[in-house]
Design a protein that fits this description.
The complex is a heterodimer of chains A (502) and B (276).
Chain A: H1 2-29, E1 31-36, E2 39-40, E3 44-46, E4 52-53, H2 55-67, E5 70-75, H3 81-87, E6 92-98, E7 107-108, E8 113-122, E9 137-141, H4 145-151, H5 157-165, E10 168-172, H6 175-184, E11 189-193, H7 194-204, E12 208-210, E13 216-224, H8 229-244, H9 247-254, H10 270-273, H11 285-325, H12 330-345, H13 348-363, H14 371-397, H15 401-409, H16 414-444, H17 456-467, H18 471-497
Parallel strand pairs in A: 1-5, 1-6, 9-10, 9-11
Antiparallel strand pairs in A: 2-3, 3-4, 6-13, 7-13, 8-11, 8-12, 8-13
Chain B: E1 2-11, E2 14-24, E3 29-33, H1 40-47, E4 55-60, E5 63-64, H2 72-76, E6 79-82, H3 94-124, H4 142-159, H5 175-187, E7 193-197, H6 205-220, E8 224-228, H7 232-238, E9 241-246, E10 249-254, H8 256-261, H9 266-275
Parallel strand pairs in B: 3-8, 3-9, 6-7, 7-8
Antiparallel strand pairs in B: 1-2, 1-4, 4-5, 9-10
Helix pairs in contact in B: 3-4, 3-5, 5-6
Classes of the chains: A alpha/beta (502), B alpha/beta (276).
Chain lengths: 502, 276
């Protein structure tokens, strides 16, 4: 009896504390944090004045005003939306958020926008129907409804079959790079929500067209953390109020979305009524773990090939740049100086974008989708060569001048002096700084995501988003650590090899 | 053997050598002394064009090697040099330090001869039967060159008693051992003259003796040597000509007995009174 009461007291205390955590938060702060993708016009984006605006944000503002909350607009990385929501850093995802296929993952408001997945192609591409997309490169946003429409669990059989016929289904981080790829001819079609498509077509003018056929129909709702019906109900009540007094229709008209809104219409509340509070996560941890490791291993191959190829090209290229930098001619020296200054002074991510899109935008060269990988290698090699060149130079200049003089006096030719005396001594000197650079390179491979090359980190983020779990990111961290551990071990070995003289 | 005529060297506005005239005969042991900053090291380094002279001539075997058009490497073969800081190659073993340059030079000659013969063979195709040119005789191979160089290097190491150090790296040697290796390294080239740039200045006192002894032995064998040093005792004992340089000019040039016993220049007198 005594034990029973102890357990009861404990349970009571725990539920009290938990309850506090769940409910106190809202009451205390009166802050309503909306998570949105800042590159998703017209629902949420940065306008010309640098403000975050959009249809959804206008709605959220009105809801907050009526409830006396302060609205906090929190731009998020779309891949990590589930982690943001689960950890409580945002209160809801309100950003053209598709309900279809995600019914049981969130606590939903009623659907307020009816949207469909459409396909945008270049005007002169000759693509007229969905069937014409066979053998083409199609772009979708990572973890978007368009992707789900082709590969998700709820995808129709026709869409799945069609997707198999694509040359490639590429995932990009944002629509801007999707359209750049389309323009540059790297891809043939972009699949996206109709609302977004209308906005993009309006902004980008001629040159693109929308296929008449729809890939899928879908509805947008506001996603709350599963089980957070309290907050959801408050927001929904306010929205219903707004619909009644016409404010909702007015805001929709302001954003040109009068045709797509569907709040209050029939068939918009199926997800709203589907309040799942417990998730039956039947997959055992070890299976999940092995699945993630298996998926990431594929990405590891990509990361590894970037790493190896970059070293193969940048180490010798650095030597060439170093030679130019140390030339006796001032004018020649300046060429290398400017090169190094640019490569070190601008972000590698920017250089990746320049190498990838530059050929089309600067020289009007049509690009193939295979160029993606080459662009990664070219940009990485050019960038790292600049760093290596400076490391080599420091190594050569650190060699005592007496070594040169002795070689000269003994009648060595320039080449012989370099290869027999200076180069081996330089190599020994530069091993520690080169190790530093190489380890940075391992981690920098993740930057390849900037041009949507799927290496390990990109994959980890995609898997993390799909599984709504932080585990893939954690495993990715372990992968990187092991990778670098091996690199450091190898470099230590090399350094020891050179210890034969001092 | 070497005629230095009106040698000048400027670093910008700084005139380091100001018209040096001196003749070095075969077998001469010439010691150069002078206060620091007087230009004596620069003078020595101009002799094998480690520093390119600004003006004047250095006639070595009838060729002006101060002329920029002359391939200096050809003449440097005949002029050894020993540095204050030894300058042994850190990444090569002791014996490699000694062998490397001779092997390189002989292999270069061998390659040249082979190329020459190939050209003759080719041009002979177009020559008449009785006008064929004979190829140059090649008596050696690369393996043989390396083998001979090793034998010679071992002999040299034997001579300085460091044969057991043949396969170690220079960093494990003492200063005196390093300098002796550096001296035999220049000897391995069979030079006609060796230039010594303060060979004992960077040594601990107890090691100076072993290096000077080796230099004395070389002098007795008739090697032509030009030595910049502060070792007055050595100069008095070994040299047959002593040079006093100050402000980039030769102020006195005499045999050691006269140089030390009866100096004429007042600056030299003052210098000797300080160092002796």
């Amino acid at each position: 009896m005594k034990r029973m009461s102890k357990v009861l007291v404990l349970l009571l205390a725990m539920s009290l504390i938990m309850g506090c955590f769940v409910s106190c938060k809202k009451e205390d702060t009166d802050e309503f944090t909306v998570g949105f993708d800042a590159e998703f016009p017209p629902y949420g984006y940065k306008d010309d004045n640098g403000e975050y605006v959009g249809f959804d944000l206008s709605l959220a503002e009105e809801v907050c005003k009526r409830n006396g909350w302060t609205l906090k607009k929190q731009p998020i990385d779309w891949d990590s939306k589930d982690m943001e929501l689960k950890s409580g850093t945002i209160d809801c995802i309100w950003n053209g958020f598709t309900i279809n296929g995600r019914e049981s993952l969130y606590t939903w408001s009623k659907a307020y926008v009816d949207n469909s997945q459409v396909v945008i192609v270049k005007d002169n591409s000759g693509i007229e129907t969905l069937q014409d997309l066979k053998g083409k490169v199609v772009i979708v946003q990572t973890d978007s409804s368009a992707l789900a429409a082709f590969t998700g669990d709820g995808a129709t059989d026709e869409n799945k079959a069609l997707c198999k016929e694509f040359k490639e289904l590429q995932q990009v981080a944002d629509y801007n790079s999707a359209f750049m790829s389309l323009e540059a001819g790297i891809a043939d079609a972009v699949c996206m929500d109709m609302g977004v498509a209308n906005y993009q077509l309006e902004q980008r003018g001629n040159g693109f067209k929308m296929l008449k056929e729809r890939v899928a129909t879908e509805q947008y709702g506001i996603g709350f953390k599963r089980g957070n019906t309290e907050l959801r109900d408050k927001v929904q009540e306010t929205l219903d109020e707004m619909l009644k007094d016409g404010t909702f229709a007015k805001i929709a008209a302001d954003w040109g979305l009068s045709d797509s809104v569907c709040l209050g219409k029939e068939g918009t509340d199926s997800a709203y009524l589907n309040d799942v509070t417990t998730k039956n996560d039947s997959e055992p941890f070890i299976d999940k773990f092995l699945d993630v490791v298996g998926k990431l291993s594929e990405g590891m191959v990509a990361s590894l090939s970037i790493f190896v190829l970059t070293l193969v090209f940048s180490l010798p290229l650095g030597l060439v740049i170093c030679a130019i930098r140390m030339s006796k001619l001032k004018a020649v020296q300046w060429v290398a100086k400017i090169y190094i200054s640019i490569m070190r002074g601008t972000p590698l991510m920017l250089q990746l974008l320049m190498v990838f899109f530059g050929p089309y935008y600067l020289f009007d060269i049509a690009l193939s989708s295979e160029y993606r990988f080459y662009a990664v290698i070219i940009a990485f090699s050019l960038n790292y060569a600049a760093y290596f060149a400076e490391i080599y130079r420091a190594g050569i200049e650190g060699i005592p001048v007496g070594q040169y003089e002795a070689a000269n006096v003994l009648g060595y030719s320039r080449m012989q002096r370099y290869w027999k005396i200076l180069f081996p001594q330089m190599v020994k000197r530069v091993i520690p700084p080169v190790t530093n650079e190489v380890i940075t390179l391992v981690k920098d491979t993740s930057l390849a995501f900037a041009i949507a090359y799927t290496e390990m980190f990109t994959l980890a983020k995609q898997v993390a988003a799909a599984k709504a779990s932080i585990l893939p990111l954690f495993i990715a961290g372990v992968f990187y650590y092991v990778f670098n551990f091996v690199v450091a071990l190898v470099m230590e070995r090399v350094e020891k090899k050179f210890q034969y003289y001092r | 053997m070497i005629d230095v005529i009106n040698l000048e060297k400027h670093f910008g506005d700084n005139k380091v050598l100001n018209g040096i005239n001196v003749t070095i005969e075969k077998g001469d042991i010439m010691v150069v002394i002078g206060p620091s900053g007087s230009g004596k090291s620069t003078f020595l380094r101009c002799l094998n064009c480690m520093e390119d002279p600004t003006g004047g001539q250095i006639i070595f075997h009838g060729v002006d090697i101060a002329d920029m058009k002359v391939d200096i490497n050809v003449h440097r073969r005949n002029m050894g040099m020993v540095f204050q800081h030894f300058n042994l190659f850190n990444n090569k073993t002791v014996i490699e330090n000694i062998m490397l340059a001779p092997v390189h030079l002989q292999c270069k000659d061998l390659k040249k001869a082979k190329r020459h013969n190939r050209i003759i063979k080719f041009t002979n195709l177009f020559r008449g039967k009785d006008k064929k040119k004979a190829p140059v005789e090649i008596t050696t191979t690369k393996a043989e060159i390396v083998k001979n160089a090793r034998i010679k290097a071992e002999e040299l190491l034997q001579r300085i008693g460091l044969l057991d150090k043949a396969d170690v790296y220079p960093s494990t040697l003492s200063g005196g051992q390093k300098q002796r290796v550096a001296i035999v390294r220049s000897l391995a080239m069979n030079p006609e003259v060796i230039l010594f740039d303060e060979p004992t200045s960077a040594l601990d006192p107890e090691m100076v003796g072993e290096v000077l002894d080796l230099m004395k032995a070389l002098a007795n064998e008739g090697m032509t040597m030009i030595i910049v040093t502060h070792e007055m005792g050595f100069a008095r004992e070994v040299a047959n000509k002593v040079l006093f340089i100050d402000d980039g000019q030769i102020l006195e040039c005499a045999p050691p007995e006269e140089f030390f016993g009866n100096p004429k220049n007042p600056r030299l007198k003052e210098f000797l009174s300080k160092v002796l």
